[in-house]
Design a protein that fits this description.
- There is one protein chain.
- The chain is built from twelve helices and seven strands.
- It is of the alpha/beta class and 361 residues long.
- The chain has three domains: 107 residues, no CATH class; 53 residues; 147 residues, Ribonuclease H-like superfamily/Ribonuclease H (Nucleotidyltransferase, domain 5), CATH 3.30.420.
- Strands 5-4-3-6-7 form a five-stranded mixed beta sheet, with helices on both faces. The protein has a two-stranded antiparallel sheet with strand order 1-2.
- Helix 5 packs across helix 6.
- The longest helix has 19 residues.
- The protein is elongated and about 90 Å long.
- The protein starts with 14 loop residues before the first strand and ends with a helix.
Length: 361
Amino acid sequence: MGLKSDPRRLPRRNHCQEGPGFLFLATQGGRPPRRTQLANVAATVRRRRRALRVWTDGGSIADVCAQASCSRATLFRWRERFEADGIEGLLDRPRLGDHSDLDPVLERAVILVRLLSSWNSHRIAAEFGRRGIRVSHGAIDRLLARHGTSRPGVTRVPGPCYERGFANELWHIDLKGPFFFQPAHRGPVRTCHFVALIDDYSRFLVGIRAVPTRQAAPVLAALEEAVELCGVPLELMTDNGTPFVIMVEGLLTRFQRTLAELRIRHIRTQIDTPWTNGKAEAFWATLQAEVLDRQHLADLAAAEVAVTAYATYYNYHRLHGAIAWLTPAERFDGTPFTDRGFEHVPSLASAAALLAELLAA
């Protein structure tokens, strides 16, 4: 199932790539790890020794730095190290991350989790920590760097954010689509939409359904089911799309009349401000990466089964970074997190037994 803009979109995931002398975890923009060849080491030492000799013979510091492509501070540091340790002092010193500070078995487990899930170092450290295995995200970062994992070129700047004070104070509802099913051979292109309701305070997925159209009836059915299971929220936030609102003064949609009957305050986002309903938008990105990019859904029934199963994992087993690595259920109603393995994580279920053996060793 692809994005609505491109039904043939291919997912981008980590891959294990091998070549002459390297094995690395590649993402978009990935690269093999740095391996310094002996010939390069010898050339580096000769260049630095030549620079020190020219300086000792009376060459100016500016000319020597220009020829050696180094700064004045670096040139003085080379001289101090050469006087103290001789020719060995001109070798590069080991850098932080060049050598492992993790147990080899734990390294294998971290790499396996990274390949199958694409989690970042903070998420991996949190997932292991909640299961009683303490490892810092810095150690994981250094491990992944040694294997050549890519780094984003631009630091992400967080936008404006807010959070209500308790569960069921505010829900977000959003309708997303169309999403394209995997087309049959020369068959018609079929699509569906997804409607999701998310609690603002806990990020608890109150309800999610796959619906065939953007009509109000299936959206209201999802809302009624969520209210029956989780109670009535004080407020409900929507965007300005159909079927939530109608741009005619004095007229109410069927959806708005239902909110009035339930005494739920309807909050509408401003036009062209997607961050106002950002928790719903963030959920769609998560659903795309963790479900739609990883499964081939043939029809509406398969889509309904997939998102319903994912809702259980999302609420009770998936740690959420925005709420201090708790599960949404821990915040929503206090349901404890009891996982000790990775059998409930869809991307790691096939390797859960192997991970359990590695971590128990």
